[in-house]
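Bit of a strange request maybe. I'm writing a small parser for structure token strings and I need a real example to test against, not something I typed by hand. Could someone generate the tokens for this chain?
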Amino acid sequence: MILKTLITTTLAALAVTAGAASAADLAPQTRANLEAAMHGEAFANLKYLRYAEVAREGGNEELAQLFESSANVEANEHFAREADALKLDGTNEANLVDAMAGEQYENVTMYIGFADQAEAAGDLRTASLFRQIAADEGDHYERYRAAAERLRLAH
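Reply from user aminoacidic:
Good idea to test on real output. This should exercise your parser:
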């Protein structure tokens, strides 16, 4: 447990240092707007890919290709250019810390809270879905943590 805390603390310090230096030239509102735009582009990408699946399942290949083409632009042009502007290119250590923080939040806070709210509303199937996803997020966290440990040992 002490080693885990030490690794997390050390990697967090590296991430904060790397992130602060790389995006220091951006105003806080600009950073927030870039992050919001990137979330929108990522969501649009995945949503359009899902729409393409539906179109293809319905036999409409032309529509599927239109959705896939748009999804590609959302991810590989818009998101990528915004990520460059945000300087989203930290070190492997910093990227692992960021990924671990996100997965841990989703595992222990976000999805559990969503599940509790869904249960309270009587949406038991969705509550179960949220709990299953929370467990997946915990697995992702552990995989990133193990990768961070391997990276630390390699240096």
